[in-house]
Amino acid sequence: MTGSHPYLVVIATISTLVSPLSCQNVSSGETGTKLNGSAVDFDSFREHFHRMYEVNGEEFNRRHLNFQNATKRHAYLNSLSTAPQSAKYGINRFSDLSQKEFRGLYLRASADRAPLFSGLKTEGLPAKFDWRDKAVVAPVQNQQACGSCWAFSVVGAMQSVHAIGGSPLAQLSVQQVLDCSFQNHGCNGGSPFRALTWLKQTRVKLVPQSEYSYKAETGICHFFSQSHAGVAVKNFTAHDFSGQEEAMMGQLVEHGPLAAIVDAVSWQDYLGGIIQHHCSSQWSNHAVLVVGYNTTGDIPYWIVQNSWGTTWGNEGYVYIKIGGNVCGIADSVAAVFL
Ligand SMILES: *[C@@H]1O[C@H](CO)[C@@H](O)[C@H](O)[C@H]1NC(C)=O
Ligand SMILES: *[C@@H]1O[C@H](CO)[C@@H](O)[C@H](O)[C@H]1NC(C)=O
Ligand SMILES: *[C@@H]1O[C@H](CO)[C@@H](O)[C@H](O)[C@H]1NC(C)=O
Ligand SMILES: *[C@@H]1O[C@H](CO)[C@@H](O)[C@H](O)[C@H]1NC(C)=O
Ligand SMILES: CC(=O)N[C@H]1CO[C@H](CO)[C@@H](O)[C@@H]1O
């Protein structure tokens, strides 16, 4: 499933191209109901997402062009969505960003190579499994205009594994990882594996989110004494499960939610449903948390928590077809041990 298409051009240089003003408003469209894509004009879009740019000003014209390009992309992306449960693409709060801007703001995970998984598949797996049913998955968060997905995926895995171990589900500080994981680049991006390596080597304890709250910008690392309560990583595994997604299902059930990196270029336009097409496995650029799967229907799928707020996708989640390494979901997958 490597079908890329003319609109999904890879843009190698990642730079922040958007003015801080529009960044703010890119991340502020969290209220109200979601536009569902069909026949939305630019005026309705601006009203819905509170875009204040001056009519016919330079920014207005540029955003209008991006918007028109987005609607063209949607027609293309939807052309293969034939089954009712297939992914739908359309207008959302990202629709006035160019693809390059979107990448620069949201897709800031660097690719990690992991060794091919060589273990066995687990026998007797349930046909569907969802860690949310066990109340060990924290609510969907919003990274806002900060390239911090790599930290959200790692912290998401840690807080779930902590809760699976019997502790009350608590949100841990993403900001602490952003500020303190010095081999990464804060809001300018990072790698989940480097963050996990840092956590394992330093045994830094992540404090609750309430004590070190998320700012959506890189700050100065706060240190806590060793006696301060927090959660540390003992170990982690990282594997490539491409061609072995059933074994990956076993890891999920045995160890808890998994941190994974994906190619999320087409997610700019995603509204919901199961992604089967238009999602390559070649250029990973985003990090997420795999929390479950469902193989009972015609199209088996992964249940994946994203960090773009609850108005994106299926209440903040994305479904990805199992098999074929769609979006590179199986390319490098980490399980954490606390
Ligand atoms: C999208 O919105 C239109 C008009 O509001 C509505 O008729 C249609 O059923 C909606 N489609 C979906 C998939 O929700
Ligand atoms: C919009 O699409 C056209 C043609 O597909 C392309 O040439 C142009 O660069 C795109 N504009 C932006 C702002 O992405
Ligand atoms: C960490 O995990 C790796 C891979 O499973 C294993 O080889 C290693 O012994 C573990 N280390 C510790 C300290 O548990
Ligand atoms: C699993 O998938 C089936 C088929 O698509 C669907 O009917 C069912 O609601 C799903 N189960 C859960 C728990 O989401
Ligand atoms: C700079 C700018 O346009 N800011 C606007 C962003 O959107 C909010 C509403 O969500 C407006 O109040 C701001 O004026």
Can you describe this structure?
A hairpin with a 6-residue loop joins strand 7 (286-294) and strand 8. The longest helix has 21 residues, at 58-78. This protein has helices at 20-26, 42-48, 58-78, 99-106, 149-164, 174-180, 192-202, 245-255, and strands at 88-89, 128-130, 235-239, 258-262, 270-272, 274-275, 286-294, 301-305, 317-321, 333-337. The chain is globular, with a radius of gyration of 19 Å. It is built from eight helices and ten strands. The strands form two sheets. Strands 2, 3, 4, 6, 7, 8, 9 and 10 form an eight-stranded mixed beta sheet that branches. The chain has a two-stranded antiparallel sheet with strand order 1-5. It has 338 residues and is α+β, with helices and mostly antiparallel strands. Helices cover 26% and strands 13% of the residues. The protein has two domains: 6-106, Helix Hairpins (Orthogonal Bundle), CATH 1.10.287.2250; 128-337, Cathepsin B, Chain A (Alpha-Beta Complex), CATH 3.90.70. The structure holds 2-acetamido-2-deoxy-beta-D-glucopyranose (NAG) (5 copies). One 2-acetamido-2-deoxy-beta-D-glucopyranose is lined by residues 36, 38.
- Any idea how many domains? 2
Radius of gyration: 19 Å
Oligomer: single chain
The set of bound ligands, ions and cofactors reads: 2-acetamido-2-deoxy-beta-D-glucopyranose
Compute the number of strand runs.
10
CATH superfamily of the largest domain: Cysteine proteinases
Main location: other
Domain Cathepsin propeptide inhibitor: 42-102
Enzyme class: hydrolase
Family: Belongs to the peptidase C1 family.
